[in-house]
Amino acid sequence: KTLQLRWFIEHSHDWRILEGVRQGHSQCYAHERAGNLAIFDHPVDVLLRVSSVKPAAPKLHIEVYQTDELHRLELAGYGFCHLPLLVGTHVVEILCWRPYGSWYQRITAALIGGHPQFLKNKLVTSSANRFDLRSETTGTVHVTLSVL
User: Fold this and answer.
1) Bridge partners of 135?
2) Is the separation of the CB atoms in 117 and 68 below 8 Å?
3) pLDDT (0 to 100) of residue 104
4) Rounded to an integer, what distance in angstroms lies between the CA atom of residue 119 and that of residue 79?
5) How many domains is the chain built from?
6) Alpha-carbon dihedral angle through residues 18, 44, 12, 121, given to the nearest 10 degrees
7) Handedness of CA 37, 5, 75, 12 (dihedral sign)
8) CB-neighbour burial class of residue 107 (10 A; exposed 0-12, middle 13-18, buried 19+)
9) Helix H segments across the chain?
10) Alpha-carbon distances of 44 from 55, 74, 108, 125, rounded to whole Å
11) Phi/psi of residue 12, each to 5°?
């Protein structure tokens, strides 16, 4: 199986992207070669400007996809972290998860693929109450961020 990482930078109206792109994706990586560890080594170069004295930190939203036996990309997990506001190098762990789904969705996913996904990805990073949302943990992404 191979893995691919898609990323998005979400920010409030206090922030503006001056250079770089707001979203992107990594190459596909065949992780069997390194056991359970996949190294993407994918640079994200973004210059942000803030217009507020006390801004809310921007968020790095990630989606991890895996290929199935028919080489289709299917969701492996969602995750996000707040981007650090302090200068320096920061190592951040992003815990990934996906919706658990009903018994019918789980059987369908096991037989023909296609785990449940959100229609609106904003739910992953929003502060909305997700108390009734059932999910399953799917792994961890380690991110090294350099803030200048």
Assistant:
1) 99
2) no
3) 76
4) 15
5) 1
6) 140
7) positive
8) exposed
9) 103-112, 122-125
10) 21, 23, 35, 19
11) -80, 180
Question: What is the dihedral angle through the alpha carbons of 42, 69, 100, 106, rounded to the nearest 10 degrees?
Answer: 170
pTM for the full predicted model: 0.81
* Length of the chain in terms of residues written: 148
Q: What is the pLDDT along the chain (148 residues), one digit of tens a residue?
A: 788 899 999 999 999 999 999 999 988 777 665 567 777 778 889 999 999 888 889 999 999 998 877 788 888 899 999 999 999 999 999 999 888 877 777 777 777 777 766 656 666 666 666 666 777 888 899 999 999 8
Place of tokens 């640079």: 43
Q: Are strands 15-19 and 47-50 parallel, antiparallel or unpaired?
A: antiparallel
| Residue 66 amino acid letter | Q
Q: Which domain holds residue 118?
A: 2-147
What is the structure's pLDDT at 10?
92
